[in-house]
Amino acid sequence: MVGQRKSIGSVSKYTWPILQNLTDTTAGVAAGRIARGIELLDQPDCLTAFQIANRAMATAARRRFGPMQGKTVESVQPPEWRPFQLAFLLMNLPGIAEPASDDREVVDLLFFPTGGGKTEAYLGLAAFTLALRRLRNSGVTGAGLSVLMRYTLRLLTLDQLSRASTLICALELEREKMPALGDWPFEIGLWVGRAATPNEMGSKDRDHPETARRRTITFWNDDRKPSPVPLEECPWCGTKFQRESFRLVANGRPNRDYPTDLLIACMNRGCDFSRDRPLPIVAVDESIYRRLPCFLIATVDKFAAMPWTGAVAGFFGRVQRFDKEGFYGACDPDRGGMLPGGRLLPPDLIIQDELHLISGPLGTMVGLYETALEELAVRGKVRPKIVASTATVRRADSQIQALFCRAQVDIFPPPGPDRRDSFFAHTLAPKEDEAKTNARLYVGIAAQGRSPKVAMLRVYLALMGAGQKWYEQLRTRGQGDNPADPYMTLVGYFNALRELGGSRRLIEDEVRTRLTRYEERKRVGESEGLFAAREIDYEPVELTSRVDTSRVADAKRRLGLPFAEKNSVDVAIATNMISVGLDITRLGLMVVFGQPKTSAEYIQATSRVGRDPARPGLVVTILNVHKPRDRSHYERFAAYHETFYRSVEATSVTPFSPRALDRGLAASLVALSRLGLDVMTPPRGAMEILNTRNALGSAVDRFGERAFNHAKLDSNVRTRLRQRVRERCEDLLDDWTGVVQDQKRVGASLQYNPHERGAGPALLQDFLDPALRALPAGNWKMKFRANRSLRDVEASVNLWVRGLDNIDLDDEQ
Q: Is 54 in a helix, a strand, or coil?
């Protein structure tokens, strides 16, 4: 703070008051919160939790950079916090340790460039939160979901799962040494879509290809098939999982026919998590609802399951019984013994990574569902602490208010008088004699009179041929780690699957063929050209939404391999799936085909390469001069790239717009009604609305207040919006009551989900159900349509391909 104030002493008298106010209101507030966090460590339980968190983070770092990289733990340098990471942890301690403090209501946004270490900062806070909860709540009462980490893309989710799993393994080893951390194990859950992890355990009598049982048996029979869990290797020692790594068990014993759990164990006998000690990872939905892991990694659209699945209530501590196998709520009234205190605590901390992606239609729906989620997570008047992170955002306060209905947002590191120096981060000018200042180099190419595909062909050939030339020269000079290695894998980035598909054929055909003779391309008079001949794999690695999750995990592993190793990658092609979550330090070369639609996407995507200053990245952007936007970027190329953070677009989140209410209000209201009252949580609890109709008035009030406070609008507009939302909620509850009355008259029942407990009339209707098309707009079924995923917007179309012999080709062919 002293240095920040000194830096404003030389400015003009007109600028001085502005900078003085900025320093006092942002940096001053952050400094005060950090000081309070340090003072909090005088409390014994907070100090102990802080020490446990630091030991666990240090152990996890040694594992990630040691055995996970093929090195010994002893060879790893002692891990250190970066200043901003430690400061972020300290300033958030009061919000976790003192639930009634004002800091609990503040949303802390960690705003730092990609590759800066944001993940470690909030994982450290998560470790402190988990340890403190166990220390303050003895025995089984400290169990339950404590930290909820949400993402938008499965690639990002899989990457963070590996890091967080290592931390949870370290915490579990700490727990075994410290009785004060309780009897219930630290576990991490992966709660994502069915394509990535199984929803059901399955059994001999209830089986289909998507169950955990069937996936595991298929993998046992042929390990070339996808593994039942999208993890390729042990997060503790890096050993690749084998068939025997996945075990189907019931009551702790092998049970292939009627399993209740899928256990994952490492086959490395020297690993701490092998043999009788499985990894603390839960990845099957049924097991997650029962085990209630303390740390849950989820995609945001998975929370569309709240109205459909009553067992989700357990995430918010709404369970009453337990045994050694797990916890049970209103959906399982006959299992386990009574839980001390009658329920568990709700989540303490919600982490929203890559905040800029929670925008547009997805962000709008998330904001609406968030109304129910936060109300369910409230304990008295205490709401969960929320932290978020991003590297590209504008008008974050408006976005956060619309998403989380929190008025106060603190950005960290706080902006200071000098935009190049926030104390925690310095912007360095490139210098030839300082490797740490190496910057990412951007090159723009536009070919007048040539199609973009021709330009792309020439660029790929030149970059790959030149890379091979340098790789061979440096290898013959006896270099250890070849300096050209980062540039031997070319990452092609495309804005649409259509462009990627056409370019893939170009790579498989012309690029591959021409490269085999590209050393012949020389300038006139040259005896030795700039390029070398090269043979590349026929199929480029693809990272897109159409690729199976198991192949995505394998692709990430291969991209990290040095070029000299077997199965290394020559060309990888991707869409915006890699714009977040691809943290592979080795990559150094990217070709962007066409200017991405937003500056945020462009910054995020191109930041996937050149993350190590010792191996600076090269980004070549191919622009189409016939497109006005591309041409404008080409003409302003240098100026744009020198200031492209200034061009980051503001995001739009409108959870209470008319169309958003049409698509999400019924599901959100049913979720809050069902999970908020124990009597309504079971599958047929929908019938209980006749007895709880008055009690559900609080849910109507909550949606009305959320609509009133979600945005900075004119008072009259906010009042009208609140009234409109309340009226729609009341109308839905009245229709629900009427449906139940009609069912009772004919001696029938009503359940939420047609597949949850046998067959029967259902309250919730699938948006994509073709049977609804014939119903009139005022029919009650049209009002209670609900998404199973926030990404389901259109019905899918099946396409069957036949060969020349008129026989259908299966998926493998």
A: helix
> Which residue type occupies 753?
N
Do the strands 337-338 and 321-323 form a parallel or antiparallel pair, or are they unpaired? antiparallel
The C-alpha atoms of residue 158 and residue 779 are separated, in whole angstroms, by 42
Q: Are 82 and 117 in contact (CB under 8 A)?
A: yes
- From start to end of 485-636, where are the E strands? 490-494, 541-543, 571-574, 589-593, 618-622
pLDDT score at 812: 41
Give the pLDDT confidence of 589-627 residue by residue, as tens digits: 999 999 998 898 999 899 889 888 788 899 999 999 989
pLDDT tens digits along 520-531: 888 888 888 899
Q: What is the pTM of this model?
A: 0.89
Q: How far is 201 from 258, CA to CA, in rounded Å?
A: 9
How many CB atoms lie under 10 A from the CB of residue 451? 11
> Are 184 and 191 contacting, i.e. CB atoms less than 8 angstroms apart?
no
- Asked if residues 189 and 286 have their Cβ atoms less than 8 Å apart, the reply is no
Q: Which two tokens stand for residue 268?
A: 């490395």
Phi, psi angles (nearest 5°) of residue 404:
-115, -5
Type of residue found at 608: R
User: Across the strands, what pairs with 388?
Assistant: 109, 352
Residue 39 CA to residue 21 CA, distance in Å, equals 26
State the Cα angle at 518 between 517 and 524, rounded to 5°.
115
- Sequence-ordered list of residues with C-beta below 8 angstroms from that of 210, at least 6 positions apart, any chain: 194, 198, 199, 200
Give the DSSP letter of residue 648.
P
Q: Distance (Å, rounded) from C-alpha 605 to C-alpha 428?
A: 22
| Helices vs strands, H then E, count in the chain | 23, 22
Map tokens 């006998």 to a residue.
269
Q: Please give the distance of CA 396 from its chain centroid, rounded to a whole number.
A: 19
User: Helix/strand/coil (H, E, C) string of 253-295?
Assistant: EECCCCCCEEEECECCCCCCCECCCCCCEECCHHHHHHHCCCE
Cα torsion through 468, 469, 474, 475, rounded to 10: 60
Integer angstrom CA distances of residue 357 from 333, 385, 558, 653, 789: 40, 20, 27, 11, 16
Measured CA to CA, the distance from residue 786 to residue 671 in angstroms comes to 10
Q: Say whether 724 sits in a helix, a strand or coil.
A: helix
The total number of residues written for the chain in this structure: 813
Closest by CA to 488, choosing from 504, 503, 499, 472, is: 472
pLDDT in tens, 277-290: 999 999 999 999 99
